[in-house]
Amino acid sequence: MQAAEATQLFQSDASLAVGRERAAKAERTAHGAEHGHPIWIGKHASPLPAHDEADAPAPPVDVAALASRAAGADGGLVKVIAAHVPHASGTHIWTAESGRVARATDLESGACVQQLRAHTAPVSALASLRVGAETLLFTASWDKSICVWLAGDARAAPVLTVPDAASDFIKALHVDAAHQCLVSGGSDRVVRVWDLAPLAEWAASPASRAAACPALRLLGAVRAHTRPVLALTTLPPPPAGVAIAEGVARGLCLFSGDSMGRILEVHVALDGATRDAHCDVVRELDGHETGVHGMAPVWRLCADDTQATADLWTTSADCSVRRFPLAAAGRRGTAPGRVSHAGAPLGRVPPVRADIVVPLRDAAKSVLPLGAVDDALQELVLVGHASGAIDVWDVEEAPRLVRVLDAHWHEVSFLGAWARADGVVWLVSASLDGTLRRWPLVRVVHGGGGGGAGGAAADAGGAGDAGGAGGAGVALTAEEEAELAALMDE
Prior knowledge:
Elements: H1 13-28, E1 39-40, H2 63-70, E2 80-84, E3 92-97, E4 102-106, E5 112-116, E6 123-131, E7 134-141, E8 146-150, E9 160-162, E10 170-176, E11 181-186, E12 191-195, H3 197-203, H4 206-209, E13 217-222, E14 229-234, E15 243-244, E16 252-258, E17 263-270, E18 277-286, E19 292-301, E20 307-316, E21 320-325, E22 352-353, E23 356-359, E24 364-369, E25 380-385, E26 390-394, E27 400-405, E28 412-419, E29 425-431, E30 435-440, H5 441-446, H6 455-461, E31 464-465, H7 478-489
Parallel strand pairs: 15-20, 18-22
Antiparallel strand pairs: 1-30, 2-3, 3-4, 4-5, 6-7, 7-8, 8-9, 10-11, 11-12, 12-13, 14-16, 16-17, 17-18, 19-20, 20-21, 21-23, 24-25, 25-26, 26-27, 27-31, 28-29, 29-30
Keywords: Repeat, WD repeat
InterPro entries: WD40/YVTN_repeat-like_dom_sf (IPR015943), WD40_PAC1 (IPR020472), WD40_repeat_CS (IPR019775), WD40_repeat_dom_sf (IPR036322), WD40_rpt (IPR001680)
WD repeats: 182-196
């Protein structure tokens, strides 16, 4: 009698079929510019070629191990739950991993440059604050703690640990650098605002760092959510020299999204003397039916170019991406709100509804409006799917799928931007498949060979106008159609 692989026990035939499909894609996308110059985290260096993209060496990927261990429902050997690029002009990306590790990887060389170990459960979130030449890194975990580190420091231990920063799993962290605040949220449904000003003062000079790191002080909390908080962000500073449209908040404006699809806009007023925070739930952003996994704010100029407005792009397990305009100026209409019952709208003013809805073929976990990278690209948005696909959508008129990047074989947990030393902007993605992918922005936008733009099949069969919740225009190959039919017949 032949023993079954441990990873095949207690799995359905459909689950095993998904695993085989993922293993095949892992092998096919293991190398090459067209697949995002993959970095296999923790395995080996994967340097970007200086000139000819064909010069990049093929990584030694053990495809057999991927097929038997890393291509099932649980993802890769290294599962990236979250990622963060501390400085857009730097070369490091930090990853929060299921193996209780926070890791820094050099995006040029692909080599691991630092590993941080202190948590006793998966590291679920991270954020950073730049203080002069130093960077304070914050990590959070399912162990309910927050750790503070000096990035690049030779010490293996955190400079500060808050062991009971929540009463349940922490799932999201965000730093608002302009107001020197850290925001955390998670399964206990509470959003907490922490004071980073004393830590920033401590990190500012070697003399002050000779003393112990000051404690992380809680400034205030939001207890309006009735489900776990999954995503947090704040509105970045507005563009200089332009009037701000009426309806867009000044000061510290926080957004929190939960597993029921509710998104709250919270204005945080900091006392000038004590820095105690008064958290005021102003309104709800009404639209998503279930978990909100990604949020990205972006400023844009109104049509008259005399004032700026702000939007919040969100993505959800309800298979949609939405744009919520925070001011009436520049709004393109109003989409229907949520259908499911979630209780009375929260806040002291009426809810905001989306003016753009992008229907997707499956759940999405990450979103990046390219207007946040380049003002000239306001009409483009990137979406990272639970299936591993990365879509490029044009939303200038009706949402239109432009191309699909052929890369990850499992959930895309992060999308971000990074500028190389020559000033050329690249996009970077991370996934539960254990890889990082690097894409030249110009090729993501314009397509073309070698840029990871999905190839001829994606450009020809994957692009088209979105029609219906499935995102029309995404064609299946003959092999995929046969496999789908076989699965449906089971």
